[in-house]
Specification:
single chain; alpha/beta; Rossmann fold; five-stranded parallel beta sheet; two-stranded antiparallel sheet; about 40% helix; globular
Length: about 200
């Protein structure tokens, strides 16, 4: 029997998770170089990056972050921001990158409008976030401070302490366990209308 000609499309979606795994597998010793808020250069390899992303994803799960929850990043383009960019969507949550140049009442509004459950904030931006908290004192969310800061926020956690001791692998793939359930309503609607489902456009992992 003749073997059917294979399709030309990829067998696996080109997702953030797949991109990260490819970088770690193919370039484990290649360096990522960034600059901390203090001006210090930060260097580490893709292999080390992958371990920290897994630690952050495990830490987020330990904080109670679930698929679909919003996690805000209020900071500069540092390695921690890169880790958030991968860890948050790869564990099924939504990364909300917030404009650090907004006024305090605007920052408070966007945190509230997005429904952020946790906000990760660079150390030198803690005073700006405190002003946003003062502008909307009834808002309930957690805060994680990145880097060393003399200023603090009530009940805030610290990034390095948060990920320390967490496993360097992340076992749960939210797309395998959650994907079909999340798509079910769209599939049902498509069957009812007898046409392909129109899925919402968003960044997936």
């Amino acid at each position: 029997m003749e073997t059917p000609f294979p399709g030309l499309m990829m067998a696996e979606p080109l997702t953030i998770t797949r991109l990260m795994r490819a970088a770690i597998k193919n370039h484990p010793r290649r360096e990522i170089v960034s600059k901390a808020g203090s001006g210090e250069l930060q260097r580490y390899t893709y292999a080390e990056f992958g371990k920290r992303v897994a630690q952050l994803a495990n830490a987020l799960r330990a904080l109670g972050v679930k698929p679909g929850d919003r996690v805000a990043s209020f900071g500069w383009n540092t390695r921690e921001h890169l880790e958030l960019y991968y860890a948050v969507p790869c564990m099924g949550a939504v990364l909300h990158t917030t404009n650090v140049r907004l006024f305090a009442d605007q920052v408070a509004y966007v945190f509230d409008h997005a429904g952020d459950s946790w906000v990760f904030v660079d150390a030198d931006l803690v005073p700006a976030v405190q002003k946003a908290i003062d502008a909307a004192p009834k808002a309930k969310r957690g805060y994680v401070i990145i880097g060393k800061s003399e200023a603090t926020l009530t009940g805030a956690r610290h990034y390095e302490e948060l990920i320390a001791g967490q496993p360097e692998t992340y076992l749960r793939d939210h797309r395998q366990s959650e994907g079909r359930r999340l798509l079910a309503p769209f599939d049902a609607a498509a069957r009812a209308a007898r046409r392909p489902p129109r899925l919402p456009q968003h960044l997936t992992a």
